[in-house]
Amino acid sequence: MPPKPTTSKSMHKSSARPGAARQKSAPKQPLPVADRLKRLFTSLCAQIDGGHFANAIKTCDKILRLDPRDADALQTKLFLLLQTDQYAAALAVIDVGGEHAFEKAYSLYRLHREEEASQVLANLKAQNGEGDRGLLHLEAQLAYRQGSYQTAVDLYNELLDTAEPDTEEHSDILTNLEAAQKHLDFINAGFLHALDTLPSAVSGSLETAPPPQQQPASALASVAAASAPDVHAEAAKRPQKVRMKRVPKGVVPGVTPPPDPERWLKKSERSTFNNRRRRGGGGATQGAVETAGAGAGGKSAGTKGKRKK
Question: DSSP state, 252?
């Protein structure tokens, strides 16, 4: 039977590539900046509500890459950095924004840059007046750190008069006031009473002795290292707690005798092995040499116990 002739249509289908009929998908267009910002702010709110502050800071950075002057993102990042005790990074954000002078003073105070913090605080007091409670709190903390305990006591008493009782602020003010008052009492009269209790020989030598010389930092470090307690020795002296999960069933720690440490060795290799032969001889006789006089004895010993037929 002759083969069927192929038409031009079938030849066109066979010669066409399988992927030629597929159209290339158009490239996905990026979202507008406004939509991307909206999505990022939604994620930011969810992260802050969930307490994921590290991820929230990263989201703020994404927003600021799209809009470097976004005031909401800058302020949110600043308070997140203060919440996570990243005061140097907070100062960098404040320098970019140009505002938040109180947060700048607080960050400088936490970074132990008291002189700069005092200057910023003085400018704030000149602008906002002296009735701001936040400024009074920060000024009292700066005075306490700089050794001006009388100023700190006066400021804390002023805050205590206007604070509401049974609040967290009231308890904090009382704690700080007590600490400042103790330092002030010791400076005014406490050290004099301590000197009076010393023997006359010691107090006389203190009055005539020259002032102590300032030691180098290396000597102070060596003395501190020598006086520091040995943590490893103390940890070794502490009794170790037994984990009950690892104790076998039926074993009472401290009561049940410990297992034999040689239980994994062969019996012949243990220290308690007694290498004594059995009485009456016996054992293999392969390779043994008998003497002439002992032939009968050996024969009788070998045939002992056999029945005669």
Answer: -
Torsion of CA 56, 61, 65, 68, to 10 degrees: 100
Residue 243 CB: number of other CB atoms within 10 A? 8
Tokens standing for 125? 């007091």
Give how far Cα 8 sits from Cα of 3, 21, 22, 115, Å. 16, 18, 22, 94
Query: Which pair of tokens denotes residue 307?
Result: 């029945």
pLDDT of residue 282: 52
Q: Which region among 55-69, 231-245, 277-291, 293-307 has the lowest average model confidence (pLDDT)? A: 293-307
CA separation for the pair 105, 173 (Å, rounded): 20
Cβ–Cβ < 8 Å for 142, 118: yes
User: Residue 232, class by beta-carbon neighbours within 10 Å (0-12 exposed, 13-18 middle, 19+ buried)?
Assistant: exposed
Mean pLDDT (the chain) is: 77
Of residues 175, 128, 182, 174, the one with CA closest to residue 150: 182
| 34-79 per-position pLDDT tens digit | 899 999 999 999 999 999 999 999 999 999 999 988 889 999 999 9
Please give the residue that has the higher pLDDT: either 252 or 100: 100
Higher pLDDT, 102 or 287: 102
Q: Are 262 and 271 in contact (CB under 8 A)?
A: yes
**Alpha-helical segments (H) within 163-294:** 168-185, 191-196, 200-208, 217-227, 231-237
Q: Mean of the pLDDT values across residues 98-102?
A: 81
Letter string b/e over residues 108-145, b meaning 16 or more CB atoms within 10 A of that residue's CB: bbeeeebeebbebbeebeeeeeeeeeebbbbbbbbbbe
SS (H, E, C) 52-116: CHHHHHHHHHHHHHHCCCCHHHHHHHHHHHHHCCCHHHHHHHHHHHCCCHHHHHHHHHHCCCHHH
CA distance 115 to 105: 10
Taking Cα atoms as reference points, which of 126, 151, 125 lies closest to residue 140?
A: 151
Tokens encoding 232? 């490893």
